[in-house]
Amino acid sequence: MRHDAETLLSTDDLVQVLLDSPAPAPKVSEIGRVAEVGDGIAIVTGLARALADELLEFASGVRGIVFDLEPNRLGVVLLGPSEKLSLGEQVRRTDQVVSVPVGPALLGRVVSALGHPLDEQGPFDAPVLRPIEAEAPEILHRSAVVRPLATGLKAIDAAVPVGLGQRELIIGDRQTGKTSIAVDTILNQRDTGVICIYCAIGQRGDAVAKVIGAIRDGGMMSHSVIISAGDEDAPGLSYIAPYAAMSIAESFAAKGRAVLVVMDDLTHHAHSYRELSLLLRRPPGREAFPGDIFYVHARLLERAGQFNAAGGAGSITALPVVETQAGNLSAYIPTNLISITDGQIYLSPHLVRRNQFPAVDLGVSVSRVGGKAQARAFREVAGNLRVTLSQFEELEEFARFGTRLDQNTRARLARGAAVRSALRQSERDPMSGAEQLAVLLAAMEGSLDGTSEAQAAAAMMAIRAAIREDDHGLTALIAANEKLTDGIRTQIADVARAAVAQQVDADGADA
Q: What 3-state class would DSSP assign to 193?
């Protein structure tokens, strides 16, 4: 074979080229070993260069997060079943932090805390990953809360309004309707363009399936993302679930979208974090919670807000849920969350026993921000709602002694009973602003006085039906944030009187 002499290098030249070329840097890879395995945690040795919150990968395929950095050992929170791990198993660094897929592809899907599909609809195309931990937006990137987020519930929109970008706590004992309020709020966003994220933390599978069914039946599934970390999953997944939900919300808010995030509930989240901390031998504090439990929730909820153009022009409204025991609002986790959030919706077991749903206790519930975003018409109609109810409850307790009451007192009792009846509302039945205003106006101005609960309920349904046919300009008035005119008040009063008279006549005919 003949070679061209100009294209060949001599042996000496080839040696010189190899000497002049820089040698490739050797790639150093640390390999650790599992020294101890617990329920949801592992102790790893041999990874001296691992960083806090770094994602580690075990030989069995399980992943974990570096939580504790101590000499010669790492405390790792597992994101999978600890039963798969064995002592002496190899552990490798990934040089990454925990991230979740984000983007429009997640809408309509049920995913895990790591972004893996759980709804048997196959994989989705979401190539963009976003770390679950992020710094809260700067003050210069925030703006005031001035737009309302309607829940569709009269007791909340009238007396405890929520604004876009607010953090409003839903708090109460078990079986008081906390999840129902959150789900009804999601259903009420069907025509608003708000993206909803429901994060189930430590919930039973049947409870999550019930929520998913309600959202799907309400036509909001295509605008929602469901994140589930069940009670059968690793506690590490329950811990990262709300952070993953907030990262997904931030991806939409950065594009100018309004997002509603429901975290159901942060009591289970705190319990998961306490469990992991105690297994990692962190010093326990009050009620055995670690000292940084306040910071765990504060850095999560501070990521919500209303953002200006520099922050993406979107908003994240947070509705965290927390469970109390025997109505104890002064417990450790509830008091922490009350101090972090912008108000609380308290659901009273006493009202539940009296079949008053939603069981919102207006004497304890408060919204520190949303009142600035409330429509002026609501403020006019419901401005005396709290006072009317509180006076009625005092008179009602007094009247139980059987004392003879004067006509003025009986009239106030009738008005209070009508207002309390007007605040009742069925599950999965959110109301438009015009319907709420009409019902509240009828109750506050005496159109429902003297009616029984059944008559009041039927009359309110008739009022709602009449308003759906002709709202007399209420919808436009609410959107324009204008005052109620005398003409509209008169028209609504006529509709209410006609509905009550029709119901009373129907009851008389049946009798």
A: coil
